[in-house]
């Protein structure tokens, strides 16, 4: 996809019945893509250059189905579009938003600064590549705007879909649900400092945290019915065919944060089930971090990454990510408990179901006897009318700002700092080519 200069900004306004307004910002690639390739052309006959992004905008913001997700207290409306020129922003409004009574009057801007300066904008969604998160989020915060910042960047078609969905919801430009908030912890700490000084809301867009499946998994695993969590295996790998990409492509260029870890690091379910587990009473960070990277030879970024996290007296998580290998199309996360396993469906970034496999009796089976295994299936679908899952996080942001909260209790900044610290440490151990982000050398640790 194109670089960040080829991105346009779509501003979305989220309003509640309490007149709380949230403006969400979305950067989307202007690369031409065939809409039917990813979304089967179900939603809108728009120009292919906006692809899935437009589908998600219409689905999530213009034709919301709030009843299906118990969100009748919030509503999302497109209020402004920012681009490199006012005519191009107006064209998007005319072509895409004209079917919405509320959104067709959106204000066009010829710059991002114009959007930030708009007094009607309360909150901004940042969906740019993660190497741009720091400066984009900083600019928005300094302009007095609340921020929902994505964690992934654009890496192909899924990326575009994510970017768009992430617009109003949670996921970012890419299909990677696990990229970091910023490039490193130093960048993140500066953003948190600014947000606190200016009393602004700031949250990382971990969309899976707010999906129906996350609540159901939490309910079952935290209940203790199957005992304690022993191990978690989490993989998010995609064969992006790196040998076919230019050396400057964002997916493999080290200066743009390319590689498996920063694009695909599968932390969402791991952090939910370990960091927020009732046994982790102090919300402690992992007691040990062991990382290993296998470099992609052309550029030095990690082609494969593996990291093992231990939470003392709680459990162990083994995480993997690759840009040269495709993950399993059946199960990409397995949670092992004392008396059962939880097999979470593919894909890691947007599962809609899981199976509990109860362990057979500990008694040794008789010769020739196959122990009976009980399987319990749970389906947690995300309605297509609900923007492919991007809307749940937007609802959370709207409610938090409406209620005067400066961060989400379900996805707080302390957890984002831990995730960023883990990624920094894995890169250090693995010898990632780029050591320092835009905020300068590290000023400390957790």
Q: Could you characterize the architecture of this molecule?
A:
With 446 residues, the protein is an alpha/beta fold. It has two domains: 4-207 and 387-411, NAD(P)-binding Rossmann-like Domain (Rossmann fold); 212-381, Dihydrodipicolinate Reductase, domain 2, CATH 3.30.360.10. It is built from twelve helices and 15 strands. Strands 9-10-11-8-12-13-14-15 form an eight-stranded mixed sheet. Strands 2-1-3-4 form a four-stranded mixed sheet. It starts with 6 loop residues before the first strand and ends in a 16-residue tail after the last helix. The model is unreliable at 1-64 and 153-178 (pLDDT under 50).
* CATH H-level homologous superfamily name of the largest domain: NAD(P)-binding Rossmann-like Domain
Using the coordinates shown, work out and report the CATH topology of the largest domain: Rossmann fold
- How many individual helices? 12
N to C succession of SSEs: EEHHEHEHEHEHHEHEHHEEEEEEEHH
Give the structural class. Answer: alpha/beta
Please summarize the sheet with the most strands. 8 strands, mixed
What is the CATH class designation of the largest domain? Alpha Beta
Total number of β-strand segments? 15
Net shape: globular
Strand order of the largest sheet: 9-10-11-8-12-13-14-15
Low-confidence stretches: 1-64, 153-178
- Give the oligomeric state of the chains in this entry, treating copies of one chain as homo and distinct chains as hetero: single chain
